[in-house]
Automatic annotation (TrEMBL):
<dbReference type="Pfam" id="PF13302">
    <property type="entry name" value="Acetyltransf_3"/>
</dbReference>
<dbReference type="InterPro" id="IPR000182">
    <property type="entry name" value="GNAT_dom"/>
</dbReference>
<dbReference type="InterPro" id="IPR016181">
    <property type="entry name" value="Acyl_CoA_acyltransferase"/>
</dbReference>
<protein>
    <submittedName>
        <fullName>RimJ/RimL family protein N-acetyltransferase</fullName>
    </submittedName>
</protein>
<feature type="domain" description="N-acetyltransferase">
    <location>
        <begin position="7"/>
        <end position="172"/>
    </location>
</feature>
<dbReference type="GO" id="GO:0016747">
    <property type="term" value="F:acyltransferase activity, transferring groups other than amino-acyl groups"/>
</dbReference>
Length: 181
């Protein structure tokens, strides 16, 4: 369990599956997560995903975001892949829309980045975000991510082609921003 100012990042439990499914099947949430046609997932699909989670796996970690005050499930965050040779991790994050614009995403990212840089000893963290996800981009920039590249017209969503932005943050940048040096 990893604790922030507003959230706790913890292992998923079976009770989270229904709440996670509700969130990721909400079109407003799903449009930012998946480049494919935003078709709803079934409960059985989400349950299979949950049953495949392995906390002692290959460096990938999927964690539930829990409200520190209420204990309520809010979304998910995790390390999606790790390149151990080059010390680079890819991450992802989603929040149920009732928790948007309240600082929970920023706090969740800070907690996860602290874990990645100080416990996993990774040098760089990267993520991909669609250009129409203005809220997400602001959140990522707030914790120190910078734009590193653009995949032009990578996703067709909302009747037009949109760019996918690649963002990254270095361990040294995170430590400097958080006075950890």
């Amino acid at each position: 369990m990893l604790k922030g100012d507003k959230v706790i990042l913890r292992a998923y439990n079976k009770d989270d599956v229904k709440n996670a499914l509700k969130s990721i099947n909400d079109f407003e949430v799903k449009q930012y997560l998946d480049p494919s046609i935003p078709f709803p997932l079934k409960y059985e699909d989400e349950l299979k995903w949950y049953e495949r989670l392995n906390p002692k796996g290959d460096g990938t970690y999927s964690m539930a975001i829990e409200n520190l005050e209420t204990g309520e499930y809010m979304g998910g965050i995790g390390v999606n892949s790790v390149d151990w040779k080059n010390s680079v991790a890819s991450i992802g994050l989603f929040l149920a829309k009732e928790f948007w614009n309240k600082g929970y995403g920023t706090d969740s990212l800070n907690v996860l980045l602290n874990f990645i840089f100080n416990e996993m000893n990774i040098n760089k963290v990267k993520l991909n975000v669609y250009d129409f996800n203005k809220r997400g981009i602001r959140c990522y920039e707030k914790v120190g991510f910078v734009k590193e590249g653009v995949l032009r017209e990578e996703i067709y969503r909302n009747g037009k082609y949109n760019d996918e932005i690649i963002m990254g943050i270095l361990k040294s940048e995170f430590k400097q921003k958080n006075n950890q040096e």
